[in-house]
Fold these 3 entries.
Entry 1:
Amino acid sequence: MSSFKNGSAVRITLLSLALCCMAAPRVGLAEEKKKSELNNRMEEMDASFKKLKSSIRNAQQDAQSLELISKIEQLAITCKAMTPSKAATVPADKRDAFLLGYRKEMAHLVADMCAMETALLDGDRAKAQELYKKLTTDKEDGHDKFLDDDAPDKAK
């Protein structure tokens, strides 16, 4: 009987260790790289941009489209003043050029969003949709240039 108890105790101990080992990686995932404020604002912008894709096609949704465009413009202005985390990995002699490029890309985004807003206000849906397509390409290019390879939204 005593060997049964010892055997059970060993089994329970081994089971407990196995469960701890399985849980440890999950705890690590929860503590994974925290998103920066810039990343959070960019994700908000991306969510609005995705909604804009469908609303911009429908004249009955112009009010919603204009609201989304305004939100994206405001977020872009906020993000323009922030520093991408990738800047820390850029060699010091190239960092100023990197930051200048980022700020210019964000300024172009704001300008293109304002042009899209003007096109919608003028009733030129084709121009607004053309700008949306351009911005989609610009977004992908900008993310390639300015996001860390391991950034949470780089995979999108």
Entry 2:
Amino acid sequence: MLDMIIRGGSVIDGSGAPARLADVGIRDGRIAAIGTITEAAREEIDATGLTVAPGFVDVHTHYDAQAFWDRTLSPSCYHGVTTVIAGNCGFSIAPLNGKPEDSEYLMRMLARVEGMPLESLREGVPWNWRSFGDYLDALDGKLAINAGFMVGHSALRRHVMGARAVGSHATGAEIAAMQELLRESIAAGGLGFSSTVSPTHNDADGKPVPSRRGALQPVGGEMIQCAAHHGSRQHAGETADSPAGPQRRRARQYADPRLKVLLARRDGSSTHRGAQETGKARAGRDEHGDLRQRSGSLLRLREEQARAASGRARSACTA
């Protein structure tokens, strides 16, 4: 028996094929059948007149703080987005070093750069974690859609350099400390390293955000050294993250099972964070496979589909 059948919808499966009327059967959180389904199911949804399609992946969001006061991550959830990547542009809110003035700096920086209300950042976010893993633990099991978080350059800089993060070059020892902190953060579940060189990114005092100073160091300097180990995503010209090397992380189920916002996706994914198993690991945590590998495959599939669609468009123009 199937867990659910979505009946009679116009199915667009993401392969580039034309839409077709079909039923979609779901078992154990995965799509088990597409077509005319006669098998019984515990639950049925009538999708007549509706479109049934894979969710969209939004690779550039800033839900890092909003996730604490809006577990649905709206408005993305209203527009077919089922996976979001946050922590972009170097603006993560973890790790923290425990110093109130440094947390306050990140808070005010987000309010300026991303237009987030300062009152919401102060009242809606606990700011009580230290490591990146602690931050992810605070969100564990509470979000309605898939989410992954980058480790931000500005947060790393402020953690290591304090007030010197704005306007000063990092010493060799400080770069090494940032690299180690980045390694720890990615091992705890961060998806990669993000930074920014955008001239519009200024902090609450109107000064360039910390990562912009790091980007100005000579070739082979801070940003390149940090990014070299794990791949980077900059604000402009984003690139896919490089694999984490021999230290393979398993995915961790991350969504609140009570929030049945998502039904299923063809790749069988649920909301995850990449993570190494720790003493706090729950049974079955690693059964979903490697999030980084799956995300890379999904992005490559999207690129192949885009190229195929472009080729079809050119053929139609020349026909």
Entry 3:
Amino acid sequence: MSSNQAKFIATNQSGTRRVNNHKAFTKVIVIFTIRSMNSSRAAGFVPISIILNVVLTVLVLAVGGFAVWAYMGYQDFKENSDAKVDVAVKEAKTQQKKEDDTAFAEQEKLPTRQLVGPDELGSVTLDYPKTWSVYVGSNGSVTPTYEAYLYPGAVPPTNSNTPNALRVSVLNEAYENTLQQMDQFLKTGDLKASSVTLNGVTGVRFDGKLSVNTQGSMVVFKVRDKTLKVFTESETFRGDFDKIILPSLKFNK
């Protein structure tokens, strides 16, 4: 049995004893009043003392009942308020810890590091949190493409189902063809497109469903005869995408 349950039972027992004592006292007064009234009727009159006893009995009963009710109500309020205070304190501590952890995680990302792509593929550069790692799958030495994967800690295998925090792709394909690949999601309303301009070059930003299993944000630009795609595959990293990645993104036209 918990301490709160024991207090509650003790309070109820105490209240019950008060009610019982009050009832016994009232019963004595009522019996005395009835006997007095019977004696008075035999004498042919009702003294003022009997009337006062009746009034006093009613008042005692009312005041005593209210006192017991108020006391039990106070005990119930006290116990409930203590429990509510405990819950509120725990919630406040949990929220504070969450805020502190978030602030610490954000601070750990600084200072940022810089990703630099090959010159022959547009010299793409951008900043990323120092807590992230980079894996370059293709650097343009074998094929005219560039593929970089970024993720906090260790980068997961490229064939895994883990969404990447960031991907940077310079593709050997027409800009228009890349945009057409997003039409199926735009038509269903699962993806939204908007204009974006960086380094004097206007491109397209997509937010929403980037593929069948991916929700995120992506910007697409034409870089020379190729197409640059910079995107996050998870809504979790959209803040970093907007605050760190895009403001630092640079490339040669």
